[in-house]
């Protein structure tokens, strides 16, 4: 199946952010990376805000697809424990740098935050469910660990910690 130019642009933007950071993302750099004209980029994303919103949606949709794949069903068909298990397994891997950058960027704009909040609302427990939320915080730690700590977790340590966290999911 042929990829759309829209998806090609978003994939190129994700790659650019991963290698050069969010500040390096411009219409010119993106056009070069995507192999399109600057006007071709502008056609799909008339403003930088539209482009960034598109990237947030693209990444959030990819994450939700991953969560559905892990869980074997959409969020609304699962129990709280099944949703939390999928989130923990997904976040048990090391965050891609672009994901981490974009999550941090979302704090600056209500529209960007709303994209991620939709996924959070469907899949994650709220802080009022203390035992489940504690497991959620462990998931965040596993996900961001290698970007925040001077030494990454070994695969064996990551697997051990993930198993221990999975055992903490309230039934």
From TrEMBL:
The keyword DNA-binding applies. Keywords: DNA-binding, Transcription, Transcription regulation. The keyword Cell inner membrane does not apply. SUPFAM superfamilies: Homeodomain-like, Tetracyclin repressor-like, C-terminal domain. Residues 26-45 bind DNA. GO terms for molecular function: DNA-binding transcription factor activity; transcription cis-regulatory region binding. Residues 3-63 form the HTH tetR-type domain. It holds the Pfam family TetR_N. This is Transcriptional regulator, TetR family. It comes from Corynebacterium comes.
């Amino acid at each position: 199946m042929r990829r759309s130019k829209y998806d090609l642009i978003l994939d190129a933007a994700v790659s650019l952010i991963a290698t050069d950071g969010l500040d390096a993302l411009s219409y010119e750099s993106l056009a070069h990376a995507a192999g399109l004209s600057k006007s071709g980029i502008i056609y799909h994303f008339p403003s930088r805000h539209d482009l960034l919103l598109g990237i947030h949606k693209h990444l959030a949709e990819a994450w939700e697809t991953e969560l559905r794949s892990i869980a074997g069903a959409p969020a609304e068909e699962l129990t709280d424990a099944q949703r939390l298990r999928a989130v923990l397994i997904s976040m048990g891997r090391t965050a891609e740098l672009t994901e981490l950058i974009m999550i941090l960027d979302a704090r600056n704009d209500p529209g960007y935050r709303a994209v991620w909040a939709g996924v959070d609302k469907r899949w994650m427990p709220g802080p009022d469910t203390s035992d489940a939320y504690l497991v959620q915080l462990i998931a965040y730690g596993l996900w961001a660990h290698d970007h925040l700590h001077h030494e990454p977790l070994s695969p064996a340590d990551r697997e051990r910690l993930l198993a221990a966290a999975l055992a903490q999911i309230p039934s």
